[in-house]
Amino acid sequence: MAVARQDQSNTMLYTAIVFVTLFLIAAVVAVVFYVKAEDWRNKYTQSQQQLEEVASSSEASNLSNLVGQKGSDSRIRQLIGYLDNIYKMQTGLAPQETSAEAKLIDLTSKYNDVLAKLPKEFGIVTQPNDVNAPGIFRVIDIYDNKLAQKNDSIEQLNKQIVNLNSDFDSAKLGAKNREVELLGQLSIARQDANSVQTSYNQLRDLMTQKADQQLATLMQQREEAINESNKNKQDLLENMSKLTITQNRLEDALSKLNVLKSPPKEDMGAYKTDGHIVSVDIQSNLVFIDIGSNSKVYPGLTFAVYERNAPIPTDGTSKGEIEVFDVSKNTATARIVTQSKRNPVAEGDIILNLIWDSKAVNKFVVAGSFDFNGDGLPDNDGAAKVAQLIENWGGKVETSVTIDTDYLILGNEPQIKKKPTLDEIEADPLANEKYEASVQAGEKYKEVQTQAKDLYIPVFNLKRFLNFSGYEALAAKSH
Questions:
Q1: How large is the average pLDDT for residues 363-383?
Q2: What integer is the mean pLDDT of 373-385?
Q3: E runs forming strands in 76-125
Q4: Disulfide engineering: 95 pairs with which of 87, 202, 340, 390, CB 3.0-4.6 Å?
Q5: CB 88 within 8 A of CB 108
Q6: Which of 477, 304, 465 is nearest to 397 (CA)?
Q7: Would you place residue 170 in the very low, low, confident or very high pLDDT band (cuts 50, 70, 90)?
Q8: 210: left (phi over 0), alpha (psi -120 to 50) or beta
Q9: Which comes out higher in pLDDT, residue 267 or 393?
Q10: pLDDT surpassing 70 at residue 382
């Protein structure tokens, strides 16, 4: 019996040990599970908070209706793509890799600029961030309506001009017919006068041959012929007076036509835009323009820079000047030679050069004396410097003004030297040649000035020429 009890005790002991071991293992597993569960719960809470920051539960459940059907990209990338497309539609430019907030601020700034530049006649008065402000499409509609009104006005004016031209042509035709009629009457009067002269000659011959009675008869006939001739002359004078009145009316009609339809500006070609500033690198003081080697741009070419939304000043004063140093097919890089501190060179500004043209060769005539260094005295090679600059920039210099001349670069009127005396000629054998040369230079100056006026050729002085060529600052540095 003692052995049986001992075996039973051992069995219970083993059972207790196994139970305790299993209990300890379960406790350890429970603790580890609790710790892991707590960690998972924290991560789940954080994930829920992050999801709430991206979208609320109602927005997340309705995501397909709010954003659209799911594409290959994430929902955030899909929304950013929509915003980029809106940015491109509004600005016409691809957005930079910035935040959505930055893009929206940029769009808001450009939108406010558009509203600020609206003409007062549109009747739109807004404040920044005004929720009742009109949208871009509404602004475009307003512009379209205004443009249609302007086109209607232009069409009406064109009709009036056509009517005036018709009246003018009728008056001109009537004057021409009257002139032909008067010339015919003048021819008849001349024939009558010749006939009278013939009769007079015959009478003079008869006077030496006939008696006094025949002479008296012939004298009477001569008197009647003269009276008839005087009458014809009087009629001719009256007709000439009527012709003068008709010509005066014609000139009056022409003056009225010029008032309604003003002649085009002679120097309109000087304001033709050659290109635009695409972007500006402020730190490097560089700009990128939208024309390149395909447009015959080359290193060293200069341009004047003007405000993109403002008219070009008549004196050509620019906001800055640039010089090209690197050229690609459709773009070029230029350095900023000079710019206004208050109004620096900016993206979208226009550029032009009076001399250079991508499609044609401009023809110039240079006359007069020029002062590049500003000392008040004409430079000996001033005209040559202007001509060299024109040729360097692709233009052509001619010696006389013709109908094909594009521009006249006119300096100061040359001073005509005093005619040398015999003593001065003995001291300087070339004195008389110098005098003749100065006279010829003065005559040429007046001649090209008159020809340019008669042919409506634009005339530029040195400063205006350098302004429109974007070369004023470089010209000043070279002296």
A1: 88
A2: 85
A3: none
A4: 87
A5: no
A6: 465
A7: confident
A8: beta
A9: 393
A10: yes
362 near 355, Cβ under 8 Å? Answer: yes
Q: Is 368 exposed, middle or buried (0-12, 13-18, 19+ CB in 10 A)?
A: buried
Between the two ends of the chain, the Cα-to-Cα distance in Å is: 134
**Predicted pLDDT of residue 248:** 65
Task: Give the type of residue at 250.
Answer: L
Q: What would the mean pLDDT of 372-383 be, rounded to a whole number?
A: 84
Largest interatomic CA distance in the chain = 215
**How much is the CA Rg of the chain, to the nearest whole Å?**
47
How far apart CA 451 and CA 402 sit, in angstroms, is 8
Please tell me the distance from the alpha carbon of residue 271 to that of residue 88, in angstroms, as a whole number: 30
- Asked if pLDDT for residue 29 goes beyond 50, the answer is yes
Task: Specify whether the CB–CB gap between 103 and 119 falls below 8 A.
Answer: no
Nearest C-alpha neighbor of 351 from the set 468, 462, 460, 459: 468
* Angle value at C-alpha 244, between 243 and 250, nearest 5 degrees: 90
Q: What is the pLDDT of residue 59?
A: 67
Q: Which residues in 23-55 are b (16+ Cβ under 10 Å) and which e?
A: eeeeeeeeeeeeeeeeeeeeeeeeeeeeeeeeb
Q: HSE-up of 125 (CA within 13 Å, CB side)?
A: 2
CA gap 145, 122 in Å, rounded: 10
Cβ partners under 8 Å of residue 355, min gap 6: 362, 364, 389, 390, 393, 394, 395, 469
Place of tokens 């052995």: 3
| DSSP-derived 3-state class of residue 339 | strand
Residue 288, helix vs strand vs coil: strand
Nearest Cα to Cα of residue 396 among 450, 360, 443, 426: 360
Q: What tens digit of pLDDT does each residue of 36-72 get?
A: 888 888 887 777 776 666 666 676 666 667 666 766 6
Please give the model's pTM, rounded to 2 decimal places: 0.45
Lookup result for tokens 């109602």: 58
Q: What is the mean pLDDT of the chain?
A: 80
